[in-house]
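anyone else get weird line breaks when pasting these?? whatever heres mine. first is seq + tokens for prot A
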Amino acid sequence: MFSILKKEFHSFFASPVGYLVIGLFLILNGLFLWVFDSGFNIFDYGFADLTPFFQLTPWIFIFLIPAVTMRSFSDELRLGTLELLLARPISPLQLILGKFLGALTLIVLALIPTLVYVYAIDQLGNPPGNFDSGILIGSYLGLLFLAAAYTAIGIFASMLSENQIVAFLIAVFLCFLFYFGFDALSAFLNTELLNSLSLSRHFESISRGVLDSRDLVYFLAITAIFIALTRLKLESKSL
């Protein structure tokens, strides 16, 4: 598994992909949070906290993470190298987890520079340091859980097509459905069941700084379900 993780991670930086992902993520956040006159602008927000950042990032992730994961299995299917990978002394689950962790590590690396925003908010506060560290930590944990769920969805989508663009579009659709679609449908149909399936609901809950076991179980379940679906699809390909 770790050999696959290492291979995936190095492949991101052996090409411009890794640098583009991190650079694009930071540029988009920087422009919307500090430059553009938008609903996410921190100066227009009126409070010295990172709420706009934690509202914006899930939407950027909906497009960014599928762009990272779209090649995970699509390339192997297109090039016919999947059989070679399956012939190695690793299980299908180890192969999937290696690719999953490789992509997730890249996303975590993209998040690390945003800790500079924490310092900026600290200095903008009156007095400096006047922000809720519990909410901040909870929000970052929420982003990590959300990134893991999106990555699992993206890995599954890449197993469905050898065309990277098709895999990207499937992943974007599924991420959008789970983050916003179920929430919107629950409001339209007035049903709590669909709302409980919404990624946004559980992300917002964790972002309040309170770790509820129900939210943790939900994120772990979504991630595990899509990894399991990927495994089923992969094993069907090897038959």
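and prot B, same format (seq, then tokens)
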Amino acid sequence: MKNAFCDGERIELEGTQIAETMSYVYLGRSLNMENDLKEELGRRRRAAWAAFGPLREATDQLTDHELRAHLFDSTVLPALCYAAETWSDTAATLKSLRTVHRALERCLLRYNRRTQLQAGLRSSDLRRISRLHDPAEYLSKAKHRWAGHLMRREDDRWTRRTLEWIPRETKRPRGRPPTRWADVFAARMDQLNAQLETSQNSRRRRPRCSWMTMARERIEWKRCWGPHDK
């Protein structure tokens, strides 16, 4: 697998040519140069159903809704959202996750689309009954936590260097740019700065700062900008 800056030369290791591929799985995550999550979302869907299979007999017999939700959220949800903290937050990605999660939720409650329609239940009604966590909220918390770890590292890792790197020699292409990994942090940081500027409590006012600056302070990152805070 190579990017646009690589020439067509062969790569050999100890005399053996390394085969070229368009994508590969590394640490359980499907990677490709186009950063297309379609294949990875399919892998997450299959992993979630595989994790739910062994639990189904137990969850069908449980009468404690809290325990049933805990079992699901501690096994199936992590399988569905594995490595999601490295994804860009797009509407299509969240829709795909929620679609799979709703199907699993119906199966957990022993409904299908037809019986749900006959019972007159909306997706919000099923969520109230199942008491499961929203996958979008789980993704947001995981991404928030990972961003804090990333910015507080001081060992010059490539993950932080690529995040802070700005390509000066290239121009922005025409049209709307694709959603970047850090765009959600920048947007929510702008909202927080606006709220603090209009606050009547002078003790809460502070200079405007970027999300990278705040993420370096563990307490401020957790207290002032927790995931899904309104």
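btw re prot B: Residues 91-108 form the longest helix (18 residues). Residues 12-133 form one domain.
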